[in-house]
Amino acid sequence: MNHTENNTAEMERVKMFSEKVAKVKSELKKDVVGQTDIIENVIIAIVAGGNVLLEGVPGVGKTRLVRSLGKVLSLPFSRIQFTPDLMPSDVTGTNIVEKDENGKLVTKFRPGPIFANLVLADEINRATPKTQSAMLEVMQEHKVTVANTSYKIDEPFFVLATENPIEQDGTYPLPEAQMDRFMFKLIVGFPSAEELSSIVKMTQITMAETAEAVINGKEILDMRALASAVPVVDEVLSYTVNLVSNTHPELETSTASTKKYVKYGASPRAAQGLITAAKVRALMSGRYNVSYEDINALAYPVLRHRIKINYTAINDKLTVDDVISMIIKETKKVR
After folding, report:
1. The whole model's pTM is what?
2. DSSP letter assigned to residue 156
3. Domains in the chain, please, with CATH?
4. Do 73 and 213 contact (CB within 8 A), yes or no?
5. Mean of pLDDT values over 69-94
């Protein structure tokens, strides 16, 4: 196959990729009003194989989005309602003792609701730290260990968690180690008056989701394989690494804004997540290469839960996103 044929086949695959994503978006819009950026970023994370944390006050459509997503992607879906009395075994499953056909007592593993392809962890920050720790292994390694035996979870596997703003009563801050397991943190804003009107009209007709399945688990894994092959030029990779390094105030090379406003910076997972997600975003835009713009656009969902701002930033009435904007501006593009 010559170079021209190679390019043609490549562009054909990119076109099919963006067409599939367009179908998914179009189906999700049947159930979710507005929230275009949220939908796009959730799709990016899912194709990239990352978990997503959706933050917003109750009633803004977080759960509806995830349920609709389960239908569109035709994936086995389960929901775990996190509460202060939820135990780790309620999530992962437990060993039970029962009689076999010979009347002997045997131990059998009964899987918990985490054994699904798409898991909605609803109000995840209402559970105690003990239950949160049960989520760490499964979110990172896609397996569960019970009584020294490990059980793999079928691929593709995603946790889409919703959380209430930390200021609300009855919430526990998620541990940093768990926050780091989420590729993206997305803020679901309150709808505009026009969007709210559309939501009310839609739910008067039916409360059920009307979206239909357009792709399946195998297609998602194929799309992920295509995305992983997207090239990243050295300049863009260096810029990404510099951007993540610049979130660390203890480094001499970090930016002035970081030294002034950041308490601690992002982990290496941030750089990995940025590159992986940027490859998917490039394909969704019909490109077979990662640009600086992909990195800058995704820096907000990738970094906002991984960096902690200090009291100086809070006193200056700055949000985490404001500080990320400053760091992006002060990080020089590699030429």
Report:
1. 0.86
2. S
3. 1-88+114-229 (3.40.50.300), 231-335 (1.10.8.80)
4. yes
5. 86
